[in-house]
């Protein structure tokens, strides 16, 4: 039986404590705190989909921070963000390749009958649940725009 994400986080946190991996432990604790906050906000325990949503949000925040740190030429903070993203990636589903993503975009455009950029919202609304957690929204948006033009 495979562990759910929250159980894996708990086990990995214990392992990081035992092996004294301070940086890894810090990332796992911050993710667990974000999940706990979301659980409190929801008033119930989180489903796997909700956990993935929180993990994706955490990853997106780190990507944005990494970009900002690169612009500010802060190598030390860039390295820290890259490490945190690496740890987070362990808990996210594997990302779709460009070819797989393009196939999903083409299939969805055909399903929705969209023919112009004016119908992009309809296509994006249909695609995002299919690729939840497995593709970056901006990448999906670019492929949809390219396909509809």
Automatic annotation (TrEMBL):
InterPro entries: Asn/Gln_tRNA_amidoTrase-B-like (IPR003789), GatB_Yqey_C_2 (IPR023168), YqeY/Aim41 (IPR019004), YqeY/Aim41_N (IPR042184). The lineage of its organism: Bacteria, Bacillati, Bacillota, Bacilli, Bacillales. GO terms for molecular function: carbon-nitrogen ligase activity, with glutamine as amido-N-donor. It comes from the Bacteria. Pfam families: YqeY (PF09424). This is GatB/YqeY domain-containing protein. Residues 1-21 are annotated as: Disordered. Residues 8-21 have a biased composition (Basic and acidic residues).
């Amino acid at each position: 039986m495979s562990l759910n994400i929250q159980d894996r986080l708990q086990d990995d946190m214990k392992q990081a404590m035992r092996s004294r991996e301070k940086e890894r432990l810090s990332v796992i604790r911050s993710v667990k705190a974000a999940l706990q906050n979301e659980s409190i906000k929801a008033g119930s325990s989180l489903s796997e989909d909700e956990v993935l949503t929180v993990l994706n949000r955490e990853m997106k925040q780190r990507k944005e921070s990494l970009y900002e740190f690169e612009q500010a030429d802060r190598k030390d903070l860039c390295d820290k963000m890259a490490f945190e993203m690496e740890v987070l990636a362990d808990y996210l589903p594997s990302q779709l390749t460009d070819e797989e993503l393009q196939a999903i975009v083409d299939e969805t455009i055909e399903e929705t009958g969209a023919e112009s950029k004016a119908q992009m919202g309809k296509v994006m609304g249909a695609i995002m649940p299919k690729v939840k957690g497995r593709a970056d929204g901006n990448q999906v948006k670019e492929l949809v725009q390219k396909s509809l033009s």
